[in-house]
## 1
Amino acid sequence: MNCRGLFDRRSWVVVVSLVASHAAFSGDDQRGAGVALLPKYKQECAACHVAFAPGMLPAESWRRLLGNLPQHYGTDASLDAASVNELATWLSANAGTYKRVREAPPEDRITRSAWFIRKHDEVPAAAWQRPAVKSAANCAACHTKADQGDFNERTVRIPR
Amino acid sequence: MTHSNLIRHVGTALIAGAIPIGAHAATPQDLQAGYSALAGTSAAPDRGQQLFTTRHGRDWSCSSCHGAVPTQPGKHTSTGKPIAALAPAFNPERFADAAKTEKWFRRNCNDVMGRECTPAEKADVVAWLRTLK
């Protein structure tokens, strides 16, 4: 039996999409996938910015951020103690633990992590300054499915 | 009942939760009335507009993120995230929850003015936003 006989056209589609989804959910892209967001996290944190995946920072960074919400990167993001506790429990359970995220980035900024800088080294400096982008924290400016936790390169559209 | 007793009475009612400040479901009208009662003055929409659209010695005004006339979506001035319309006639979720309203006044007045807003200022802003139809 030749290869064509073993895998008809439809089977190939299944195989290829399985491989593709495995690639999307493994290795570096794991940061953006797999964890259902706590409703409280979405409600409180995604009011001002994209709901960054918890695995993008180590527990140590999340702990510091939650301990300093009244001075959160230049804005007051203060929250009641019960909400802070709920977020702390969930973030520490879902924080990044694999090797590239284990170390806290400077200022606990995702955008200063070594993996982030390397992943974005092809983006021209001028692109970050465009009015539609403004900030490296504005993931959704280019990652069109960032709000769904999908950072796959195929969904990237850099605005002009 | 003297005037100051009346204010004290209303204030006590507010703190005790008879008027839902810090509680759950509310209307923009309730919230404005609650703030006015705490302030002991009536609200002035034009003062609210002034507060909202001008800077107060810092980088941002309320309008920096919400727009000068917040009947349409705004955009967070540092992260670029869209912010739904603030005027309650254009977004029924606004000023519908006292705790949420207090949380955002606390944060945003701190960012814009470097202090919390007074009840009178909050009443003025809500009154102005209610005039936008």
## 2
Amino acid sequence: MTSTFAEDQPIPVREVSVATLAWLGLGALFVLVRVAGVLNIPVSGAELDHLAGAWQAHSGNSDVRYIPTFFQGLTAWTFGFTESESPARLIVVLGGASVPLALYRLRGVFGEAPPLFALLLLALDPVSILLGSTTWAGALDIAIVLWLIVAMNEKQLPRSAVAAAGFAAVTAGPLVLPVIIAAAALRLVSQQYPARESVAYALGGVMVGVALASFGFGFGWEGPTISPIATLAAGFERPWSTEHTRYLALLYSSPIIAGGFAAAIASAYRNWRDQEWPAHCVLLYVWAAFGSAWLIVSGGSHDPAPLAAVAVPFALLVGMEVPGAYAALRRVDWRWASPILGVLLPCMLIAEAYVADWARAGRPGTDSDKLIVTGLLIAAMACLGLLASNRRTLPALVLFPALIGLLVMLPGTSGVAFGGPNEPLLSPASSVQGREIRDVARQNQAEQGGLIVVHPLFEQAMTWPFRDSGTIVLSSRVPPDATAVIWPASEPAPEGFAVVEGEWSLVEERHGPDGDFLDYLRWLNSRNALKNTRVPVAVYLKAAE
Amino acid sequence: MADVLAFWATALVVAAFGFPIGAVLLRRLPDAGAGLSFPLGLALASYIYFILRVFDVLPAGRGGYIAAITLLGLAAAAVAGRDRWLRVTWRRAWPGVVVAFGVFTFAFFGYVSFRSYNSEIAGTEQPMDLMYLNATLNSEEYPPKDPWLAGEAASYYYFGYLQSGVLTSVAAVPASSGYNLSLAYTFAAAASGIASLAYALARWVLGSRARRPAIVAGGLAVAMLLFVGSLSAVFEWSAAHEHYNERLYETLGVEWLIPCAPGQTADCYTGQLNPRTTEWYPTEYWFWWRGSRIIPNTITEFPFFSFLLGDLHPHVMSLPLVLLVLGLAASVWRGRSALTWKTHRAQPFAGAAIAILLGALAFQNAWDVITFTLVFVLAVFSRNLRRAPPLQAARGTLSYIAPMAFGASVGYLPWILDFSSQAQGIEPYVGAGTRPAHLVLQFGALLLAGLATAAWSFRRLRGSVASNVALGTAWIPLFPFLAWIALAMFKGNLSDGVDARGTGGWVTLGIYAGSAWVLCFASVALGFRRHAMAVPAACAAIAVMLLYGSELFLIKDVFFGSVPRLNTVFKLSYQAWVLLSLGGAVAVACGLRNLKARPLAIVAYPALVLVAVGLCYPVLAAFNRAGGFTGPTSIDGLAAVQRSDPGEYDLVAWISANTPRDAVIIESTGRRWQPGPDAPTLIDPGVDYGDAGRISARTGRATPIGWYFHEIQWRGDTPANRAEFIRRQDAVDAAYISGDPEKVLQVMREFGAEYLVVGRVELSRYPGLMPDFAKFLDVAHRSANYVIYQLPRYGTVRTS
């Protein structure tokens, strides 16, 4: 009997660890979610402001919306060959794709699970998705932040990398500030300064970055500019979201913030108990503290960036606690815990169903309904109490907030990634009609000649939809040679002009649920519960003579 | 409430950043300077903001302020990292830190509660203060522009407003609330500062075990600085209830409380009678104002009055900084090694920080820089004197101070270049002297307390040393008097001066001279022994010298022709109040403890009685000011405008929200016009202390001209200035009353103004005189009868 060589040799088996699979899977998830964002998220919020600013810079107009970060410069540069935001968004995704890699490199510092779990959280965090898929000034910040952490933990860094890190840090957006300040503060307190040579190279990168930023990356002198500080300052002034930052935090980031705080407290307690303060933990605490401070002081601003600034350290902090939580869950006596959870979950689900029904109706139910819900909640609390009362079942409690956190987070994840029309995070948005208005005006101008006139109230709103439209006149009074007029809908029609029928707008705004808890719940259950508001404009064309 | 909490939390964060730096500079204090870390942190953060804004490194707006505080935090981290003793210091000082922050918090919320009953920013110079606060907050360029003189840089010592701006902006509080909260901050920072300092001095005097008397000293110092008022309040109270003795009142110099006799109009009571009050406290409108005008033709303001009135003036805002410099001086005096230029080589950052703080004295309230820098220099000299003979000590002191003086001058150059001082030199005072009764009413309690420091000086001093010191220190009060004679002779009005002073005036001068001699003797005698009471004694001595000096000399300024020594007495007596409060509180608290060993300290008892009498003023005045604490409460200084004139409030809100920070607006000059037979007639040219520039003050947007006479005060009384300011007034008024659209547009273009306001004030100042602006201007905003007009806009934008 003969046999082939192939039959004789054992088939070579390449072992792939679960961790590797997890890295690959989560990395793919991270990138795919952002690709979905690139394809679906409308031009809105900070991106709308920054695209307009970049376009203005490209057109040679001075504009406060152009904040010379490296990425803003890059975006303005792409407008040299396209009027679309897509190439810039592609750059964002390519940059963002390095986030899994950076986190992978951080395994050496944090261990396997924390960065992996952080990757999962960052993949699902709605704010990180938005700011990692759209072309706002700090679009590459999350990646830069993580690579800076990688660089800080390298024992030997090539000089060129040190200079590049200095350049990247000083030309990035504001998200790098908390980590840089945290690292600087810790170095200053511990008196552990880097080698002079490294400082010199980093300073070299910084100087080049500041010089380039000050010259607007080739788009004109902007004055001495430190990009992260300039972007941070702009975040307090500019309308990068319709809702206040603190409200966005409540709507989108409450799970990651609550989880991060809890994880920070647990981790700090363990360090205090063991009298061991690993450097990477301390850096995370201080970083998260500075990020939180930024979030607190920006509560009344209209800037989602602070939410992303806390998301990264909090994701790592939560990740650090996951192995411990998992180990604790494995120690749970499920003979006791399962029945309790078996009662708890139905109680919560039924209560939720009732409350969701009230939310849909917009008012609380009947007294008997209230009684039932109260009873269910008391039963649920009792179950929680039972879980908490026994050391063998206590760790199972962690499942409860984790589940609620996921329930709150996931609708936001899908809503943002797929550009849902009822996401307050994606507001103010450039309306799809903006380009139509521009086309109508341009066509009319081509036929009749004359000027396209826009009221100064819409000076900022028109920049992006009216890009590449030649010269536009901004005037508060209709000049005699105007042929197309974009005017406030509340103002009377100019004489000799015919209105173009339609409900026109340049900007759409999406406010969050503005009532009580039931309103919020209704929005959480059904994203279609919000009303979109448009800033109405009237379009007039010169009547044919 | 959210605004209040945000402001308070911001103040605590800034103080926490200041603490590690204070722990190095003020380590010798028992709380390691925690009580003074509020002004320390705030002054340094504000300086960082100022200098980086000047060089355009920090952006305008809130981000710039937050970046400045962050940089302070990094500086604090660097100091903490270098400080080998920080842990030990912290272990020793943490109870003091807790107490300091507790005192601050208690005082802050206490004052906020009081102020919420009278939060309106109106009257006196409060609109001006709000204007400067808004100027520092909103100026696109630094040094900031003067909103009441469009296009010109501010020419005033505005560092206090800048500091208020840091807290206001970071806390995200509107300026109209930030104004009131800044007052609360100043009150609280002054309370924690003087409590910390008095506690430290008492501990140094009595030893580290004597905690209780030291706590008494801290509490007493807070009471004397921030609560004690004019003793006249007792007589006000009595008179309000119709109890007065005419002879006694005349003797005590409060004859203005006696109802006017028929035909009499001056120096008597002209208010309501039968009853004079409807409550247990005097209800006469602002009766407490008289307590700040005890000495005729002067202002004798004291801290409680300042906080009662609520003017956010530089001399008020500087209280915490002044206390910080006194703390630095005390800390320096307490040290041992000689201070020379070599000290800076070893501790460059400490020298830089002190230079910034001493320079800040001038930037915050120019009057303070000479007095309190002198205190600091004397502390350095006194310390060096313990190590070296006088000449060498003086050389060392000079070499220590000179680099800091140079650094401060360079560091504040951007402000100095824009600042135009109104001081025109020193003149001998040749008017009526202060009556002894007024001296007692105004300064009696503090002066007596200050004199108690002398009780420590007469022990363990050999006769020859004592006589040498006594003879030497006699020159200190004698020299100014001889200088006064010489200067008055030189000016040719010595005999007038001698006559005009009057018997009472000479007695007062004698009291001051005698007190100054005793206190100078005490401070020098104690200083030789390195006895800690030398510091309170020196504070009291300098205070009395300031009061004495203001009887002999005056700083010539724009008031010279009418009320020549108004500002001199005002500003110097305010400084004296701070110094006497500190020195007196420590002396009284220590005196009560050491009465057996130091019988002369018996003077502490009558001082304490007078202090208690002085506490009548705050009780009565606070109830009067707050209307018995019954009205509506708010911390927003414009809440009253919102209630009484919502349209006017709306104009302010719209301009704040919808115009660029560097926008220029045209609003009424405040001059009143009426239609005349041929042309409009000017019927009231007075503008200061009125509504002129009110939109500008409330928003920080510039207007061509605000308060005319205040601009004169800030920029000098020159023909060119007068002509320019009147030209601006004429131009703005012409825009409202000429009726010529071309003129309106010309005025707006000349000043770069895009907006023209027609609100309550314009309607009342130009009745029936204004054209229909809507015919040639755009209506930007309309609110009831009020309108904001905007220049028609036309421009082109390249979109490709």
